[in-house]
């Protein structure tokens, strides 16, 4: 789920999960550093999209019991990947190396589960189906003999498999 959101200059602070207050950043000495301001606003936009994504997931959880098994698997994988990605980002932001932490292995495990879920879905819904009528027409056309088209087909008796030879 991806949301495109355009925020005015500033960031979002949450006093509660449902109320949003927009504040302007006071960059002070960094007001001329456009690269820093761009990165900061990009981070604010990403945080807002993550918040909206989690709000949608929270709303969907109310209907979790009525989900089918496939929907439950997708929902659980989505949430576990999202939470672990947030933890990976947290490690990156505070300056720790997330590659040395176990979170990298956990993300790889979840990605493998997502790939397996996609394979199961594709096998169940996207597999090719044989059109039996068309297959019969192809076989009949392949066996058609143009020279003997006027002669009725005579069923040849199958050869006798139990022939005994006296030597």
Report on this structure:
With 167 residues, the protein is mainly alpha-helical. It folds into 2 domains: 1-62, no CATH class; 66-125. It is 53% helix and 4% strand. The protein has helices spanning 34-61, 69-93, 103-125, 132-143, and strands at 11-13, 21-23. The longest helix is centred in the N-terminal third of the chain and has 28 residues, at 34-61. It is elongated, with a radius of gyration of 32 Å. The protein has a two-stranded antiparallel sheet with strand order 1-2. It is built from 4 helices and 2 strands.
Q: Which structural traits does this protein have?
A:
167 residues, 4 helices, two-stranded antiparallel sheet, mainly alpha
The total count of strands amounts to 2
Q: How do the SSEs run, as a string of H and E?
A: EEHHHH
Number of domains: 2
Q: What does the overall shape look like? A: elongated
> What's the total helix number?
4
Strand coverage percent: under 5%
The largest sheet, given as strand count, sense and whether it forms a barrel, is: 2 strands, antiparallel
Strand order of the main beta sheet, please? 1-2
Mean pLDDT reading: 78
**End-to-end distance, in Å?**
81 Å
Q: Percent of residues in helical segments?
A: 40-55%
Rg, Cα atoms, Å: 32 Å
SSE arrangement:
Blueprint: E1 11-13, E2 21-23, H1 34-61, H2 69-93, H3 103-125, H4 132-143
Antiparallel strand pairs: 1-2
